[in-house]
Amino acid sequence: MKHLTCLTLFTILLTATISLPSYGQQHRWTIGMSQCNLGEPWRVQMNADIKKAAEAHPELTVIFKDAQNDNLRQGAHVEEFIRAGVDLIIISPKEAAPLTKPVSAAFKKGIPVIVLDRRVLGNEYTCFIGADNKRIGKAAGAWIAKLLGGKGRVVELKGLMTSTPGQDRNAGFREGIKGTGIDIIFEADMKWLEPNARKEMESALARFPVIDLVYAHNDPGAHGAYLAARAAGREKKMVFVGIDALPQEGQMYVKQGLLAASFEYPTGGREAIENALLILSGKTAPREVTLRSRVFTKDNLAGGGEWLSN
């Protein structure tokens, strides 16, 4: 009996030693990060931004997972994070509806969830961080209408239209060109991927002898369209506009003269870690963080672009 009592006491003391930080020791938190895919340079940059921000805080460990454009795989990521008992989850969902249930399950179990870039349905998450895609699309539409003098034949290459950024960039663009003589002669869902954009642009080129401008929902899409037009010997007869404006991608294409403009869509990686630290330390994080955007053209590139008006 005396032996059992001593053993029980030892177990309690050991558990307490593991569970409680010693005096002066920092808490250590584990963050699970599920990225919907790493096939897009912008998403690679988002992970890099998260990693860089987290490395400045030794109390944080971030576990990265790549869903490879698979909703079921990404849902399984969230379930794995729940079972592993991570302290917080960051997710950039592939699509809203299929990922809503796993995110809600984590939230209901008391695990804070930061939703990054693409939304889920409902409000069972802790914080959403992203730029205003509708505002960016509207600004792009207004900029294009001005460039074309209020009329022209335009190809629109859309992002994944079951994702909220694709829907908002489309809706904002249509609002931006409303009342003008801009004619959308061809539109297709290239699902954010450059090879798909190139293929769709080849179809547009085959059908329409005159195209004034291509508006793509991301820079890889605009670049894919440019490559298709160049292969057809028609790239100098039209202009190309994209979204994302990564320094090594969209901004470089503008500098090279391949794109007329690229509208910035910041990754939010740094802001995700900043808000994760607020949440994990018991402070209040904003429910919504809206990131600002700029437009880059050959005229303002050297000066750091021009901020979009609110």
Put the structure in a nutshell:
The protein has helices spanning 2-19, 41-55, 71-84, 96-108, 133-147, 164-176, 194-207, 219-231, 250-256, 269-280; strands spanning 29-35, 60-66, 88-92, 113-116, 127-131, 151-158, 181-189, 213-216, 239-244, 261-264, 288-291, 294-297, 306-307. The protein is an alpha/beta fold and 310 residues long.
Question: What does this molecule look like?
Answer:
By secondary structure, the chain is α/β, with parallel strands linked by helices. 43% of the residues lie in helices and 22% in strands. It contains ten helices and 13 strands. It has helices at 2-19, 41-55, 71-84, 96-108, 133-147, 164-176, 194-207, 219-231, 250-256, 269-280; strands spanning 29-35, 60-66, 88-92, 113-116, 127-131, 151-158, 181-189, 213-216, 239-244, 261-264, 288-291, 294-297, 306-307. Helix 2 (41-55) packs across helix 10 (269-280), helix 3 (71-84) packs parallel to helix 4 and helix 7 (194-207) packs across helix 8 (219-231). The longest helix has 18 residues, at 2-19. The protein is elongated and about 60 Å long. 44% of the residues are buried.
Oligomeric grouping of the chains = single chain
Query: What is the general shape?
Result: elongated
Query: What order do the strands of the largest sheet run in, or round the barrel if closed?
Result: 7-6-8-9-10-12-13
Q: Into which percent range does the helicity of residues fall?
A: 40-55%
The description of the largest β-sheet is:
7 strands, mixed
Secondary-structure-based class equals: alpha/beta
Provide the gyration radius in Å: 23 Å
Mean pLDDT: 92
Instruction: Encode the helix/strand succession as letters.
Output: HEHEHEHEEHEHEHEHEHEHEEE
